Fold:
Amino acid sequence: MNSVKVGIAGLGTVGSGTVNVLKRNADEIARRVGRPIQITHIGARRDNPACELGDDVRVSRDVFEVARDPDVDILVELIGGTDDARELVLTAIRNGKHVVTANKALIAEHGNEIFTEAHSRGVDVAFEAAVAGGIPILKSLGEGLAANHINWLAGIINGTGNFILTEMRDKGRAFDDVLKEAQELGYAEADPTFDVEGIDAAHKLAIIASIAFGIPLQFSRVFTEGISQLTTEDVVAAEQFGYRIKHLGIAKDTGKGIEMRVHPTLIPQEVLLASVNGVMNAIMIDGDAVGPTLFYGAGAGAEPTASAVVADIIELGRALTADHDERVPYLGFHAESMSEAPVLAMEDVVCSFYVRMHVYDKPGVLADVTRILSENGISIEALQQKDPEDSDTASIVMMTHRVQEKNMNRALTEISALDAVRDNIVRIRVETLDA
Structure:
């Protein structure tokens, strides 16, 4: 039986991991597919000593040669970025090739265009590795949980941010100090913006939400807030209230629209997600039939990500002889059946809040704060005031009941204008995740 011929564009960390997994597990993979998987063409600017290609593999320095190679059945895009990757993938599709990619930015920003082109050409695009590394979250949503109406999902989908928050909580370290170590360990890039400001997680959330709720990819509608302004004071205060701070991607079907948001979040300590530490990823999904489920594992790394890439290659290898319309749709729902549910503006989201402020220690300040909250329909669930020991500044920390975001924004604007408030007010959203 003829082998499935694979071309790989990009031989970096994930590319070399993919080659090694395909070679090491070749016999078992062939048993799963029903025929061998053969790497026939590699496109890479330079060789990678982390893997051995063998004499039967063609190597090109121009990755587009792989996309145009008539002998390649499946192109694996691992070059990263969006511009060149978009052109590479579209070139492969137009040359009749199926595509596997680990590129979350590419799918989140250009997926709608890519899927339309692929559908017109009768080829498939698989992208399990684009979200949460080795955790099979997209297949679980699109297939394993397909019987469910998904109510909500919440995930730790960026390991760098989770590592930073874990170190701040466990060791009382400052954000900047932990970020520097994360860069030294290779968890964070020299420019860590995508990780710590939530852009990486927003790319992933756009993809997950699309498959969960059957909506088109809408990365631009994801509300994004990072963790760079968090302090150990907030981490400690959250613990005292019985919560932990996690940088979450959250998507909900409210019945009035879809929420898609990435931001620091207080979650109860007893929720399993609160115990996910270090660089690990985890996603909770609540379905109407199955209830809450948790998916946990490595969200990055050569072989965890390669695990998902190779799984996609296996899936496409099995489907090569199947009619295109009989395969699983790209986003789990057929294109003509996608939902037109709106994505809610952040000001319409309803949740509880943690609020922390530093104020001058003088009579009447707390009364002014509580008055403004009351006038905006905000009730307080818990409050702590820490009196100063050697300064004239007091710290007020409170937890509110659920309130619409626009009301909280208005209240905090009014409180910030008080002469007694010394610096920026910290506001962190709270989710119980059905605890």
